[in-house]
Structure formats: C-alpha cells, structure tokens
Amino acid sequence: MSGARRASWLAAGLILGAGACYCVYRLTRGRRRGGRGLGPRPARSAEDLTSGSYDDVLNANQLQKLLYLLDSTDDPFITERVLVTLGNSAAFSVNQAIIRELGGIPIVGKKINSPNQSIKEKALNALNNLSVNVENQIKIKTYVHQVCEDVLSGPLNSAVQLAGLRLLTNMTVTNDHQHLLGGYITDLFRVLLAGNGNTKVDSAFLALFDSHVAAEILLRALTLFQNINNCVKAEGRQAAQPSFPQGSLFSLLYGEECVQKMRALGSHHDADVKEKAAAITPAF
Fold this sequence. Notes:
The protein has 284 residues and is mainly alpha-helical.
C-alpha cells in the first residue's frame, strides 16, 4: 500500500471521523461591549489582557505584548492564560496573519514541548486556530512530526491527544502536507480505531454527506473524498471492491450507503456540491 494512498485515507479519517464531535475552540473575549465611547483608553499590561474581564478584540500592539510575555515567562499559570488568550484571538482571520507577521508561531509552537500537559494542550489549541490560515500552515508544518509523536505517546483519549488530532485535521484538509504523516499511518489508525467517541472513526461520519448539511461542510468533506480518488487514480488502481475489512474507513467510503449519498448529492441545489459529487460518483 503506497504512502500517498494511505496518507489520503488517514486525512479523510481525521477530518470526517472527527467531524461530528469536533470541539470548536470557543471565543470568550471577542465581542465588544455596546455603549463604549471612542476616546483614548488606558494602556493595559500583557497580564491584564489575559484576564477574563477583558473582552475586546486585541490589536497588533496587544498581541505583541502577549507574545513577548509568553516568550519570557516561566510561570506555568501565566503561560496557560496567555496561550488561551492567543488561541481565542487566533480564531479571527485578521489576527491569524498578525500573529504570524509578529513571529508568534514559533513562540507558540515551542510550548508544545512543555512537560506540563495543560500547557501542551493549550499550545496545540492555539496552533490549531492559527492553522486555518494557509500561509500559517507553511510554518506550522515543522511541528507535525512532534504532534504525531505526542498523539501516539500520550494517554488514549487525553486532552493533548484530541488537541493534536484536531491540528492534524486542519493540516491535512488539502494534500499539501499529507505526506508528512506517511510514517505514522499505522499507529494513527490504531488511535483512531481504539479511541472513544471524540477520536474514533465510525460510520457516523457518513452523515456529513447528507443533502441537508451546510454546503460549506459538504464541500470540505467532498474535497477530501476527491483527494482520495485522485491518489487512487495516480496509482492506476480501481477504488471499487478494495480488500479492506468491513467497517474500515475505506469500506465505508466506498460502501453502498455512501454510493447512494453521492448520487443524491448529484441533484444538490448548490452547483459546487453537485459538481464535486458528480466527479466522485464514477469511482464507484
């Protein structure tokens, strides 16, 4: 079995298997309070910015203060608070770019090596939000090896393991970085199959191909499926009737239930969804 083919299966497993239970990193400080004046405000220290009482969207100067504090402190409590604040801020697309331009990705990234599991988890969560930006992925890809090691070596179903899987999910949505997981395929499948509802791949992910699912989600799931087909075609093989056991990810993707869903999506109201579904259907 080739590395490209297996990497594509894994990527689909990560994004689709975790889709229904994907834990969105909630924004707790992103809304502005109504009724505030537009005059000058007193300067806030970096530690003040991590307080739960501060709920404004952060600007570049404030983000720079936080990154400096994260890079210079050895206090685990402060480190966690800063990582949470940066992670929340990174949920905004404009801040994803600002943090990268300020050199923040390596500062956050080195915290995944912390022996403190809570700090490691929060660093992975922050990188996960940052990884939504394609340019950020170019820098974050240097941590994929370490993330895979942490996912495999940590306790099954732990917070760190789930945070790592979420990051790997975002990093493998396209096929640009899927090859980085090539050496971890077998062990990652073991984690996905042995884990609980938060990490396990099961038949529930087929619900993502239902016609009532939002078009944006459908397109993301169909793109993963299309990437798999492209890799199979590149090998000169037919996807139909693979020698995989019943209940495996591959048998679910190419099983009769999924066939019917693809055909139904061929009549979807969204033109992009219809086009992708039509491109996948001949593979059955």
